[in-house]
Amino acid sequence: MQLRVFGRTGMQLSVLGFGCGAVGGLMVRGDPADQERTAARAIAAGVNYFDTAVQYGNGESEQNLGRVLQKLKPAGVIVGTKVRLPPGELGRIANAVTTSLEGSLARLGLDRVDIFHLHNPITETGGETALSVRQVLHDVVPAFERLRQQGKVRFLGITALGDTAALHQLIDAGAFDSAQVVYNMLNPSAGEELPTNYPAQDYGRMLDRTKAAGVGVVGIRVLAGGALSGSAERHPIAGPAPEPIGSAMNYDADVERARRLLPLVKEGFATTLTEAATRFALSHPAMGTLLVGMATPQQFEDALAAVQKGPLPRAALDRLSALRQAFSGEPR
């Protein structure tokens, strides 16, 4: 398993991380034996980053990951979790952040987490579930720093969702060590310029900024919530079709566009769309580790096999870019 230096942290993360999210559902609703077997297989294959959050199954993901890690007792595993502040807690951010982390540590069976990510969307002015740039810098960051000083957190992170300009401000501010960045074949704007009138949020080459700031990158929505399988069918334990992030405004539109990328498979650049999507995310040099949602042990094996093939070749990336040109001008 290839390891990549994760920004300025000095940590080396496996290019394939182990996503414990609710969309795939393995670590939330999966069979305990499958959870343990898949995690053990991942560790044996060299995966060293496990990503969870209190929101995944209302603590179920953390609880299950904690149980598995306590049983397997792997050496050198890096764990990241998250806090999402509800609107009613914004008047007591420091207390809410601390309470959330204490609950996470108890469920995980850990004394500290390696990366603690803010899970709220971030906008210029905040509102509803979003936090403003000012709230993050003036309230969240000091609360995170206190937890770091107490030895309960090693590194600070954000989930880079919200307004592009606000996210750029936070990355440039240098307060965070990690950013979870949307990057996939339907929306590559964090890494390259989008065609004119392209139907997706423009993340404005965010990966250039993370690199300049020394921020490690966790690639998220690599499969666009499952749409880049090209199939609308979902596994029984997977979450419902997710609200798209950064791409089309509805999941079916993402699936339809994904199917229009099938020439990558027909022309021999990859054996499946999911393989192409995984290897695409791997292709950007700023990518530290990437997360692929899983419902079954086999889906982990598929992700591992894709990563072992390495990044997509230049010819495949050029073909993909040409195929995406047809999306320009379509409604989002």
Please, could you describe this protein's structure?
The chain has one domain: TIM Barrel (Alpha-Beta Barrel), CATH 3.20.20. Helices cover 39% and strands 14% of the residues. The chain has helices at 26-29, 32-44, 60-72, 93-108, 133-149, 164-173, 206-213, 251-259, 263-266, 273-282, 297-309, 314-324; strands at residues 3-5, 12-14, 18-19, 49-51, 78-83, 113-118, 122-123, 131-132, 153-159, 178-182, 216-220, 289-290. It is globular. The model has no long low-confidence stretch (mean pLDDT 95).
Helix content class: 25-40%
Low-confidence runs of at least 5 consecutive residues? none
Average pLDDT, to the nearest integer? 95
Describe the biggest sheet? 8 strands, parallel
Query: What's the CATH topology label?
Result: TIM Barrel
What is the N-to-C order of secondary-structure elements (H for helix, E for strand)?
EEEHHEHEHEEEHEHEHEHHHEHH
Tell me the structural class: alpha/beta
* Total count of domains: 1
Rg over CA atoms, rounded to whole Å, is: 19 Å
Q: Going across the major beta sheet, what is the strand order?
A: 3-4-5-6-9-10-11-12
Beta fraction of the residues?
A: 5-15%
Number of helices: 12
What gap, in angstroms, lies between the N and C termini?
A: 37 Å
CATH class: Alpha Beta
The total of beta strands comes to: 12
Q: What is the correct CATH architecture?
A: Alpha-Beta Barrel
- CATH superfamily membership: NADP-dependent oxidoreductase domain
